[in-house]
Specification:
This protein is α/β, with parallel strands linked by helices and 280 residues long. The chain has a single domain, classed as Vaccinia Virus protein VP39 (Rossmann fold, 3-Layer(aba) Sandwich), CATH 3.40.50.150. The protein is built from ten helices and eight strands. Strands 1, 2, 3, 4, 5, 6, 7 and 8 form an eight-stranded mixed beta sheet that branches. α5 (143-153) packs across α7.
């Protein structure tokens, strides 16, 4: 699947995380999705924000804990260890390939996986004690419905953590400001809900949940190895070239200056993630 730490060619873009997406090369796209998710977990910001949210969710033995859009199941397995044999740890994942990877990685644990998505959760009213949903909101056409679903399935005393990015905070150094504006505008235009991070709090309140005043945040700073081999940037830039937003020459220049910046020690590429705790 990988070569020198990553796939030789990324077959993934923002649309691949949407339930309506149909892959043209399912195996290659799945390999890319798994690579991206695993790579993100190596960044310091992701486990840091996950730990912040998990501390506040405080899953207890015997509770039902759900991860919506669970990907490869990392946090479902963590739930399984916390709720114990008498509890229930469930991952909800609409992508069949990712669900299969999660099941394979969870062999020997009590983690369970279901098909479903954030806007139509496969649970009865008031049956979930703990729920988390990480970087799913940005891919939703109807995040308000997702918030209502979270409120519907939570039991009295239930807790939910919604973690997501706000892509207006995506910054790069070095980068020509005009180039980066066009690149980021095109990237955001392909996403259903690119500014999710600033909207989650109000959506949870509107759904009837009480939202903690304390908001978690962490800057997902891309490691130098990612910037040095900019496969993810190139995948998005290729779409912007097709759309006529950028030229191939501009993209090649940006790749070169970022790689050179890594060697000088001043490359910086990051997006800010936020975490909100809602309570029933």
């Amino acid at each position: 699947m990988t070569s020198e730490g990553g796939p030789p060619e990324m077959k993934v873009n923002a649309a691949a995380f949407r339930r309506s997406h149909v892959a043209t090369d399912a195996d290659a796209e799945l390999a890319s999705l798994v690579f991206v998710l695993d790579l993100q977990e190596t960044a310091h910001a992701v486990p840091r924000l996950r730990d912040w949210a998990m501390d506040r969710l405080a899953p207890a033995p015997g509770e039902t804990a759900v991860d919506v859009g669970c990907g490869t199941g990392t946090e479902v397995r963590r739930f399984a260890g916390l709720v114990g044999q008498i509890g229930r740890a469930v991952g909800v994942e609409p992508h069949e390939g990712l669900r299969a990877v999660a099941e394979e990685r969870s062999a020997g644990t009590t983690a369970q996986y279901l098909d479903g998505d954030a806007t139509a959760l496969p649970f009865d009213d008031g049956t979930v004690d703990v729920l988390r949903c990480e970087r799913v909101w940005q891919h939703l056409d109807d995040p308000e419905q997702a918030a209502r679903e979270v409120a519907r399935v939570l039991a009295p005393g239930g807790r939910a953590a919604i973690l997501d990015s706000d892509w207006a905070t995506w910054i790069a150094n070095p980068a020509d400001p005009e180039f980066w504006r066009r690149f980021n505008d095109a990237f955001c235009a392909r996403m259903a809900n690119p500014f999710a991070g600033r909207l989650v709090r109000g959506q949870l309140w509107a759904a009837g949940l009480t939202v903690d005043d304390d908001v978690g945040s962490a800057a997902l700073v891309m490691p130098d190895d990612v910037v040095r081999n900019p496969a993810l940037f190139r995948a998005s830039a290729a779409l912007a070239i097709e759309e006529g937003v950028l030229t191939e020459d501009e993209v090649e220049v940006q790749e070169r200056v970022m790689v050179e910046a890594v060697e000088r020690g001043d490359a910086f590429l990051s997006v800010t993630m936020y975490a909100f705790i809602g309570r029933r």
